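Example pasted here:
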Amino acid sequence: MFLESFFYIMKKIILLLLLFSKVAFASFEMNENMQNSYAHIIRLEFDAAKNNIAVEQATNSDNGFIQLHQNYIDFLTIFIGEDYVFFENSEKQKEIRIALLKNNNKDSPYYLYSQAEIHLQWAFARLKFEDYIPAAYEFVKAYYLLDKNSELHPNFTLNKKSLGLLHSLLGVVPDQYHWILNLANLKGDVDLGLSELNKVLEDTECKMYKSEVLFLVSLLQINLNNNNVCQEYLDRIDEGYTTNYLLNFAAARLSYSLGQNDYCLKVLENRPSAVGKYPFFYLDYLQGMSYLYKLDYVNSKQYFNYYIDNYKGANYIKSSYHKLAWISELQDDTIKKMYYFEKVISEGNESIDIDKVALKDAKANYISPLILLRTRLLYDGGYYKSALSEIYNIKKIKTYTDYLDEYWYRLARIKSKLNFNNTEIISNYQKSVELSEKSTNYYGPMSVLQIGLLYEQDNDFKNAENSFNKCLSMSNFDYERGIHQKAKSARDRIKN
């Protein structure tokens, strides 16, 4: 009886010691299994990644990377798929993962970093569904954790990946929301953020994160409208777009920003095999747009319809129907045009600018005159000489009285790409501005932004700043958020 009691007590003590030891030594191990799971995640191979994570849970359940990688999968699923039901169900896991991470090794640079990453990923996930107040909280929480981690581990390069993204994003927050940043003592700086992200790219010890960082920095450069740097990152991606969906998306968007539509199509046509990957239907939408820029209506319709039929989210649905209405108009099919406009009104969401404009046009039964529409499409594809020839088909400008703001804007954009004299280009933009004063379209504000960029190009920073400020003072027009973002970024750039 005594021996049984003794062994029972010893067994309890040993179990307690083992439990204590397990908690005390719980850590972050980027072993081969976790490296493989991360690589699968960034390639959107979620099932393969989950297999690696399951193996790690069975053999090393206290590895902190398990929670982080599980959250990566949920975040990318929400970000790409926009499935609200999945979003709601996954949200319950966030606090569980944070709690588990807090039981980890506090001395590890990954301790605060991993928690910040989860908050940051959920901030972006919430923005997808316009859940702004909780998203703001997540951003603030992530920022504080990353800032503290930088103090504790100044040589931890990976910290700069998330902090760089945050600095860049906070640097383009509109002026009217700066009080929120000031309240939380947050500081945004686009140049600092991009510099931090580049340091991660240059650090050989962070090589495994190259694809993710290239994806992030490419998106920032696209939205900041810096074409020289866009080319640099497109070159860095090289043929990585053939093996990674995220890099395929980044390369497609970069090449579009550079006016390289044929290369954009090459990228999209050579995307990775869909087998074993989470579907990224937005690439089909982009391919539909690329064919439309070539005025290839048959292929364009095919991809827009494929996107509509397969994508279960809400964004770009209105825009897809909007483009199908354009194609119908270009093909002189009024019945189909009206059908697609009705679909714009009844289907999809209007949380993003391009869908808002689609809805506005559908309700007004509005499409630009065909010459201007073809001009726009050719310009957007980077076919500048063809666009100029198209707009020159307008022989009597007076017959376009209701569309002259668009006419002068498009002519100026084309001339800018074909290196016409800046004085002539600015004069054309000014005409668009004057004719757009009472309009809600984007031609006037975008013209003011472009005038500022031309002044900046000529090192006339005073006039450039005046133009950017004027653009920021304008309101209630299409694509306002994106245009203001570019104006603010440009103004901050010349001030620095």
